[in-house]
Amino acid sequence: SQTIHQWPATLVQPVGSPLSLECTVEGTSNPNLYWYRQAAGRGLQLLFYSVGIGQISSEVPQNLSASRPQDRQFILSSKKLLLSDSGFYLCAWEGTGANEKLFFGSGTQLSVL
Amino acid sequence: GEDVEQSLFLSVREGDSSVINCTYTDSSSTYLYWYKQEPGAGLQLLTYIFSNMDMKQDQRLTVLLNKKDKHLSLRIADTQTGDSAIYFCAESVNAGNMLTFGGGTRLMVKP
Question: In 3D, which of A30, A29, A31, A23 has the Cα closest to residue A6?
Fold first, then answer.
């Protein structure tokens, strides 16, 4: 069966420090992968999505970047965190069939101080 | 821990109303959301409701919240084939805080 792992669950980082959040999927191949952020009062905001290794689409210009070095690994990064990067980050995967649905990781609560 | 439950599947005829139900366990839930996922697409926020409201209407969508029973529903009036999708219920304690999702309800609309 497929599983998705996201870590860490919580993270407290100082302003200006780097960030690396990792998401891995097991039990499937060539999934579509997504990074979302919970935007206050607006629900989830799509940050990045990837349809394959090295293929990243950015939905929102920001201080963050994403990479997909392996088929089932999706990394969210920043070189220098801002206070406004604080929030709840969620990774999700989706199969490539016509009727596949999204499955979510458990999320990372990031606090930038 | 928190838990959000939804039925897996709902089938309706075009033109009928659809009602998708959701139950949650966290009594401190403040925001409750409905998201739509269409095939091959990410999540689209449909609507959300604060826990101090019991109803919210937006065009064909009506959200009902029974806080006592921790029950949330999404009613789609005059359901169209374009409404066929997976609908996720989610809750959070604060607006920028951790979201907990239900497993999603697949809505199939038959012509």
Answer: A23
A1 SS3 class: coil
Could you report how far apart the first and last alpha carbons of chain B are, in Å? 41
DSSP class of residue B77 equals: S
Cβ under 8 Å to B: A residues 1-40: 32, 34, 36, 38-40
B2: confidence class by pLDDT, cuts 50, 70, 90: low
CA distances from B29 to A4, A82, B79, B98 (A): 25, 28, 29, 11
Q: What residues of chain A lie within 8 A of the CB of B106, using their CB?
A: 99, 101
Task: Locate the chain A residue with the closest alpha carbon to B100.
Answer: A106
Which one has a higher pLDDT value, B28 or A68? A68
β-partners of residue B105 are B87
Closest chain B residue to the Cα of A107, Cα to Cα: B98
Contact criterion met (CB below 8 Å) for A42 and A36: no
B80 DSSP assignment: -
Beta strand spans in B18-104 (E): 18-24, 31-37, 43-50, 55-58, 61-66, 71-76, 85-92, 99-101
Q: Which of A33, A91, A102 to mutate to test the interface with B (most CBs of B within 10 A)?
A: A102
Question: What backbone phi and psi angles, to 5 degrees, belong to B14?
Answer: -55, 135
> Over the stretch B28-78, which tens digit does the pLDDT of each residue have?
878 899 999 876 566 788 998 988 899 999 999 999 999 999 999 999 999
